[in-house]
Design brief:
- With 297 residues, the protein is mainly alpha-helical.
- Among the domains are: 34 residues, no CATH class; 107 residues, no CATH class; 59 residues, no CATH class.
- Helix content is 57%, strand content 5%.
- The chain has nine helices and three strands, in the order H-H-H-H-H-H-E-E-E-H-H-H.
- It has a three-stranded antiparallel beta sheet.
- Strand 2 and strand 3 form a beta hairpin.
- Helix 3 packs antiparallel against helix 5 and helix 4 packs antiparallel against helix 5.
- The longest helix has 42 residues.
- The chain is elongated and about 100 Å long.
Length: 297
């Protein structure tokens, strides 16, 4: 093998890196210089975690801008969104009751100029509330969709020979197409699930169940994935191994989640109770294992 005249084989290069680990950094540097994506498994987890944080931060700011309700310290993003919408609904109920009372009084000839002005003011607030409610609901659903697609992308293994610029272009296009197909579906038990609908029909996986983002993305991005890689195709998040418990202050995780855990939000809380830090490798592995089939919220 001669590095200088490029007569070495890929197997010889692999053996050389194995024999001289310091050489790996030079190989990585050369790949990055050629505009290829090179990240370790742990670096990939950190990278994805940072993207999740960006999604949460953007929607938290949207919620505040629309509602004026601030996020509490250490409050989870989904809990904050739920509190904002619940608070607005509570205010609306009291206002709607007052509007009904004023309308009834005025219709019965008991209203004066002040009551008519109050009714008009409340009706304007109600119209604004309806607009804000629609906007917040749309933002919350869009966040759910983006997180579902994020989870799908996390399950894919890309072909390392494809340049980052090409891969990113294809990922962005596939993400946009799935965003246009995504619908947040209300389930019979009042939970919500992201499904993907085309021509009025939910897209299904090979088992005849609603396809998740990973399954659809694997098809969309097959040209930039490792040969033979397939999407999981079931509920949100599949694969991975359960996190090892009993170390570093963590409690050992049970073999299955309690029957009371019905949504991914509840699963996140449950995993944290066992000492797993969100966005850590252990947390992500456990989430992938237990989140299959759970509704978003």
């Amino acid at each position: 093998m001669a590095i200088t005249d490029n007569t070495f084989s890929l197997e010889e290069l692999t053996n050389a890196v194995a024999a001289n680990p310091d050489l790996a950094q030079h190989v990585v540097g050369a790949a990055k210089a050629a505009n290829y994506v090179v990240r370790t498994a742990d670096e990939e987890k950190t990278f994805i975690g940072s993207k999740v944080g960006e999604i949460h931060s953007r929607y938290e700011q949207d919620f505040f801008d629309t509602s004026g309700i601030a996020k509490n310290p250490n409050e989870k993003a989904y809990e904050y969104g739920k509190r904002v919408i619940t608070g607005l609904k509570s205010d609306a109920t009291a206002r709607q009751t007052k509007i009904t009372e004023l309308e009834t009084a005025i219709a019965n000839g008991q209203g004066d100029a002040t009551m008519k002005a109050q009714l008009e003011q409340l009706q304007m607030k109600e119209a604004q509330w309806q607009q804000d409610q629609e906007k917040l609901t749309k933002q919350l659903q869009e966040k759910d969709v983006r997180l579902a697609i994020r989870d799908g992308l996390r399950e894919l293994k890309y072909d390392p020979t494809v340049k980052e610029s090409i891969r990113n272009t294809m990922v962005d296009a596939a993400t946009s197409r799935l965003m246009n197909l995504a619908v947040v579906q209300k389930n019979a038990d009042n939970t919500e699930t992201v499904v993907f609908v085309r021509d009025g029909k939910t897209l299904l996986n090979k088992d005849g169940q609603p396809a998740n983002a990973a399954f659809l993305l694997a098809e969309e991005l097959k040209d930039v994935l490792d040969a033979g890689h397939q999407g999981a195709g079931g509920g949100a998040g599949q694969g991975g191994q359960g996190a090892a418990g009993g170390q570093g202050g963590k409690k050992a995780l049970p073999a299955a989640v309690p029957a009371t855990i019905k949504t991914q939000g509840q699963l996140i809380d449950w995993l944290k109770e066992y000492g797993l830090a969100q966005n850590s490798k252990e947390f992500d592995e456990a989430f992938d294992k237990f989140s299959e089939g759970l509704a978003l919220r």
